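Researcher: Next sequence.
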Amino acid sequence: MMTKNSREFDSYSERKAFDETKAGVKGLVDAQITEIPRIFHLPPGALTEKKPSVLSPDFKIPIIDFAGVQVDAVSREAIVEKVRYAAEKWGFFQVINHGVPLSVLEKIKDGVSRFHEEDVELKKSYFSRDFTKTFIYHNNFDLYSSSSSAVNWRDTFACYMAPDPPNPEELPLACRDALIEYAKHVMSLGGLIFELLSEALSLNSETFKRMHCLKGLLMLGNYYPPCPQPDLTLGLSKHSDNTFFTILLQDQSGGLQVLHQDCWVDVSPLPGALVINIGDFLQMMTNDKFKSAEHRVLANRKGPRISISSFFSTSMLPNSTVYGPIKELLSEENPPKYRDFTIKEYSTGYIEKGLDGTSLMSHFRI
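Model: Next structure:
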């Protein structure tokens, strides 16, 4: 954490003052600012550090149709092969005909929007940086991380929906029913995706579920207000996810990009689709066979942008399960590249490090 004696003192003071408003980025927008505070400013050149997004057909996120996944073995194997390719080459793919009703997708987007546009005094009652609480609202989980170069232009609520589903009264009325309903569908879809990922590794379809990978679900409701100076900041800094994998629902605003072959590639919104991305845990467990791709979100003059991130991870909750490279995937030619870890150990380091543009996986390499 930055101290008063450090050269970052001004930044720390401004971050603290911003944090204490408990109004988030939306509070700045509501105040009708025309220039963003300097704590949001990226270092010069940060937005152009990689080649711009390209339009080649080879640089389009894989789209996988799940319609035939339960029809017959041949259809399922074709889908498994597409999942294998996407997990190995991209770490990202979009799914259609995934079984989550469009009405449920629209309801959760509306619920996230309603919460973030509630009266600020109501939102303040949920404000916290205790990442073990059932439901919290905050801005930038790494706001006080010494390695974080700039504050991101987004507000977020976080809610644990598993392993212990919250009592309905613990959730804000604005998004209560939508969260509960969406979480049920996400858990079901998550189970199917774990099966397909297991089969993509030529393992028993229940492998990841038997390893309790489906145990935890942390859902984030993200709100990216319109930014008056989008060329100076980011909605979300470059990072990979501290999850097994993530299911993301995004609206039609755009802005999500994945780093692929040293290029930023747009993850273009597809109506009714869900974005799946491999997380750090699966990259380590598959000994680098699957890829946990870095991604970011651009700021935009238009808005708000709404997204819902569903993290398959117990995150900061107690969990004694120890993970490491899966033994069936190892050999003399492919020895383990990572040491064993627990989810809480990894998540603690991830939060302390913040989104500084580097991966925590390097700390677990053998």
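Model: Residues 10-364 form a domain with the Jelly Rolls fold (CATH 2.60.120.330). The first helix runs from residue 9 to 21.
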